[in-house]
Amino acid sequence: MEPSEEPIVARLSGLVQVLLLITVALALVVTTVLIQLYWPNTAAPAVSVANEASQGPPPPGSYHRPATPAPDTATIPRTAAGWQIRYGRNLIAHTARYLGPQGSVAHLTNGMNCQNCHLDAGTKGFANNYLAVAATYPKLRARSGTMVTTQLRVNDCIERSLNGRALDDSSREMCAIVAYINWLGHDIPKGKKVYGTGFTKLAYLPRAADPIVGKAVFAAKCQSCHGPNGEGKPQADGREYQYPPLWGRHSYNDGAGLYRVTNLAKYVKAAMPFGTTFDHPQLTDEQAWDVAAFVNSQPRPHLNTPRDWPNISKKPVDHPFGPYTDSFSARQHKYGPYQPIEDAHPQLAKAN
To answer: Residues annotated as region Disordered (predicted)?
Structure first.
């Protein structure tokens, strides 16, 4: 090769290398764009367990009106009817003392009290309160597909949330519980919905609720009262719980309403940890969803419910047991994400 040709060859070689590098770079860019267009990343965003567990209370929520107050117990009349109402209130507040494993009347329930789920004897706002029950029942319930009376609703709770056996409708205890519930709602017109009943609203997460993250939230926010193994804290005499068990054989069974993650998330958002009110929450939305997923991922008693949801198209989006009228998995029905399920069942959107 002539000496004058060497610089030209070198320049050509360098140009080829540059062109190759540009071609490779363009190929990578095109490949990345095609992957994003036709193979999007659907994985849930990474969640920092430590960060979520250590987050402090969020700003006060959007619910600022006071919840509808319960009538003053001082107004309960000093009559036989008043005695029955007071007895009913005691049965709600201290169920286990009367009906629990060491109950003075019967041994029907698991040792929890009704007010472990229906706080302040069923009067606390957005904490499962009873104020609208008398105005609402009897009513047709999709879960049973039948008209449900207050008595049936009470026994539902006893059999599911207290993992117990039903009371006789004519028993002194059932009559007293119904009398108390009716007294709470005696000023509420039939069919009227009052502010503070039911559960607070809670937006769906764009991802599934995460039991692993929820375990860290539980350790940081809940176990000081409910115990590291969710076992609860008994009163000194052992007849009832100061703080109820959240899983295990003494907790609610898998037929209970709070076994649905959306219900438990809404409940803990408005009422937990101890001292929380719906307008001054202590948990973020993410913490509420994830700790609910963790609690409901733990073992608990099983209840056979072959008659539940006779019309399966009316099952809530978060009902954790099939069969379903859609192709979403049982795991997604339990933990979410729920929005795609709701989008497939627009008739269920009202449930949230």
So the answer is: 50-73, 299-329
